[in-house]
Amino acid sequence: DEDLLRGGSPELSRTDAFLDGLGGDGDPVSPELRELARQALIRSSDFRKFAIATRLLVPQIDRICISMLDNKNLDVRFAESGSKVNSRYYAQGTKQSATGFSLADYARKGEPVVNNDLSKARGIDMTLMKREFKSSFHVPFVWDGKPGIISFWSKDLLAFPELATDVLRMISQEIAGQVTSTQKPADAEPTTNPPAKERTGSDQAQK
Q1: Is residue 177 exposed (0-12), middle (13-18) or buried (19+ Cβ within 10 Å)?
Q2: What is the pLDDT of residues 32-48, one digit of tens each?
C-alpha cells in the first residue's frame, strides 16, 4: 500500500517520518530484512521482496536498483520502484555503454556517494533520472570481480541524511557480503557530490 510507504501524518515529510521512527538504541535493521538482503540477488522476485521491505523501513525511497559494469557497459540487473514512479528510465534488464554515466564512475570510485540535490548532478544517467527523482544514495560493491552499485532514489530533496545512509549501508553490506567485499568498506564515510560546475569527469563525456 503506497500510503503505508509514505508513513506519518500529512504534515510530516517522509524523511522526517523515517527519522521520527528510529528511536531507541536497538538495531534499526531487523533480522528479517537482513535475511531478505542476503537473498536479494537470487531471483527478481527475491529482489522485489527485499526492495519493498527496505522501502517500508525507509519510506522516502521510491526506487532501488543494482547496476553492474560489464565490458564497458552498464547493466541494470535488478530494479524495483513504487507504483507512482515512471519505470521507463533504466528498467531492469537495460544494458548500454557506460560512457558518460555517473553510476559507472561511482562504481569505479568504490565509496558511497550522496546526491542531496539531483538537479546538480551530471552524467547521462543523472540527466534522465533527475526528471523523476530529486536525491539519491549509492553504495558500490564487487560481484564476480566486476564493479557494481546499489542505488536508492527518492522523489524528495535531501532524502538521505546521515541516519538514513547509515541504515542503508547496513543493508547494502548484507547484499555485498553474499558476493564479495566492496572495493572500499561500505561503511566508509559517503561523499557528497559538489555543485555541477565543479565536476568534470562526466561533463567531458557528454560534450
Answers
A1: middle
A2: 999 999 999 999 999 99
